């Protein structure tokens, strides 16, 4: 079996697999369409039940040579065609999905090069990817309102935000909470931001109190979104916690472009500035 070849290069073949529920399928389908638009070959896998419902609602699932729809049985017993079996879904995900999924993959005309799985399907998709010897990416298809956020500041920054925004500006809610940990930076006064000491203290004193805070949270974190400038400790923390991390570089666009062009500016003699 050979992958499709475009301009002498094999097209990556991605299997997209969503949790069999309407909003999850819609979100995954949008991602699959974007990947296809970028030139990837897509196999979009539904359960047979969801596939039939989509056809019944008027969705065109004919696909094409490089965007195909496939389906697998979910094994869920149903009392009628309108019974979505949602109350049994998690139980059957654990026991009946992996084997028919692997059977389907073995029959595809082109072998897949990776899997993009709904995070809620990871209960069997990770094992399936390991058996196939291909990478897997988990795409969490729930909306932003379904996320639980813990926003972590240092004690000093937390106090300064309360002082500028009022005593209740950081009250948060059950699914958006603010937490703090000490930065251990010596200060002359409350107004001293000690910015000249931040980097050495980030490298030496932030890791342990952050891990202590994470251990005390009522719900264990599933991932970290970290400012790229504090990655010197957050990457290690993520490894110790066994969770993924995403680095979000918070510098402005002009700052980024300045860093991007500093080499050429130096070559032209324009940097560093001369007095």
TrEMBL record:
Origin: domain of life: Eukaryota
Family: Belongs to the UDP-glycosyltransferase family.
Protein name: UDP-glucuronosyl/UDP-glucosyltransferase
Lineage: Eukaryota, Viridiplantae, Streptophyta, Embryophyta, Tracheophyta
GO molecular function annotations of the record: quercetin 3-O-glucosyltransferase activity; quercetin 7-O-glucosyltransferase activity
The entry's keywords: Transferase
């Amino acid at each position: 079996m050979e992958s499709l070849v475009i301009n002498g290069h094999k097209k990556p073949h991605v299997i997209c697999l969503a949790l069999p529920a309407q909003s999850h399928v819609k979100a995954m389908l949008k991602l699959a369409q974007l990947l296809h638009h970028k030139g990837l070959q897509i196999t979009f896998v539904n359960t047979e039940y969801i596939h039939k419902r989509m056809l019944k609602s008027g969705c065109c699932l004919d696909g094409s040579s490089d965007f195909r729809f496939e389906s697998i049985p979910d094994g869920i017993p149903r009392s009628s065609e309108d019974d979505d079996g949602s109350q049994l879904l998690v139980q059957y995900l654990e026991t009946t999905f992996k084997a028919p999924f692997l059977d389907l993959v073995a029959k595809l005309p082109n072998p897949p090069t990776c899997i993009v799985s709904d995070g809620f399907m990871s209960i069997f998709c990770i094992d399936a990817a390991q058996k196939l010897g291909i990478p897997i990416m988990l795409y969490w298809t729930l909306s932003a309102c379904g996320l639980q956020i813990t926003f972590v500041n240092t004690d000093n920054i937390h106090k300064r935000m309360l002082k500028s925004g009022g005593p209740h500006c950081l009250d948060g809610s059950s699914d958006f909470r603010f937490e703090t940990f000490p930065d251990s930076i010596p200060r002359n006064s409350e107004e001293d931001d000690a910015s000249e000491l931040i980097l050495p203290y980030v490298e030496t004193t932030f890791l342990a109190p952050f891990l202590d805070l994470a251990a005390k949270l009522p719900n264990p974190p599933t991932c970290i979104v970290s400012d790229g400038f504090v990655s010197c400790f957050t990457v290690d923390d993520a490894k110790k916690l066994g969770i993924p991390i995403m680095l979000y570089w918070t510098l402005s666009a002009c700052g980024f472009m300045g860093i991007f062009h500093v080499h050429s500016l130096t070559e032209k003699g324009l940097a560093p500035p001369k007095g």
